Queue: 4 jobs
Job 1
Amino acid sequence: QVQLVESGGGLVQAGGSLRLSCAASGDIFRINFWGWYRQAPGKQRELVAGITSGGSANYGDSVKSRFIISRDNAKNVYLQMNNLKPDDTGVYYCRDLGLRVDLRPFESWGQGTQVTVSS
């Protein structure tokens, strides 16, 4: 199995910053894609940012120039969130796509971390 654990959420005032982390563990051979998603109350889950194993990143329109996704060599992914706005409030989830050690593909989600931005 592959496990993802997010951390770094919390309460912050508008204009502030937070850094989310997602630690991956388990029988992972390779991760091909890391993604951060968020779900606000009453809304569908949406992609915030994603990054491939080759380093290509993409962002949702509402977070471009404010959020930065990055990864390290230990299979972990981060989301630096700057100039936060109340509309950024929601539960943030990380998602990985890759191959297990037996070369079967996997998709795994974390349990989510709450981000609340006050005005």
Job 2
Amino acid sequence: QVQLVESGGGLVQAGESLRLSCTASGIIFSLNVMGWYRQAPGKQRELVATITSGGNTNYADSMKGRFTISRDNAKNTVYLQMISLKPEDTAVYYCNAQVVTANFRVSDYWGRGTQVTVSS
């Protein structure tokens, strides 16, 4: 069984920063792509950013410049540093990981999400 647990969300004012963390635990052989997605009320879940095990990153166009994704492979953890937050960044932020288990099966896992609320 694999679990992804996010942390670091909260209520901040516009212009402030937050750093989200997501740690994978369980029977994990390796982690391929890890990423962050978000879902605002009444909207579909959307990509924020992804990062490969080698550190290659991909960002949604609207996130470039304010959000930075990184990971610590030794800790099975992915981070999302967010600066200059705006009220429209308010959403539940979900962690995603492609997990390779001991039998070399690759499966997609999601965390339960962490709420980020940005007040104006």
Job 3
Amino acid sequence: QVQLVESGGGLVQPGGSLRLSCTASGSIFSIFAMAWYRQTPGKQREMVARITNDGDTHYPNSVKGRFTISRDNAKNTVELQMNSLKPEDTAVYYCNAQPGPVVKNLIWGQGTQVTVSS
């Protein structure tokens, strides 16, 4: 199975932008859906952006209009553009792959820290 490696996290001021990248060790062409999740201590991991192999995207209300997910099957990458960042966006962000239409056999990256603070 593919392995996922995230990059692009860091410290940014409120209102700023960051772009996260997820690079897969193999082809993501046939992977049903790719997504970004985030997690803070003591809380459940939550999905913040998802894109299927048809290009359909989904965002929760908390990030809609600020985050944009994109997928490049030729480069085996998934990116998350985050704009108008807020302190509550601070979390470890994880790249996720869902191989088929059923939510099972999920693949996770190691995570990248995003800190929004002045």
Job 4
Amino acid sequence: QVQLVESGGGLVQAGGSLRLSCAASGRTFSSYAMGWFRQAPGKEREFVATIMWNGGSTRYADSVKGRFTISRDNAKKMAYLQMNSLKPEDTAVYYCAAVPYGSSGYDYWGQGTQVTVSS
């Protein structure tokens, strides 16, 4: 079983930055792919970014490419999402999620952290 806990959300002005953190439990964190998703009010949850188990490959939604950076520290069992040049449309609850080794999908999810960007 894996538990994920996000932190680092908050209120920021447009153009500002935030760094989200995701703390993971479990002995095999280094074998998981990790992802960040978000859900704005009245909208479906959407993909933001993902990073492979060794950090060697990343992928981003077009809407955040060039502004957000996903990273991980396997020794600390942490994943991060650095968000720069934030826009009001980035306002959402942000979730981290994990793909266990051998799985084809995100089996574990955190509880989410609110990010609000004011104009």
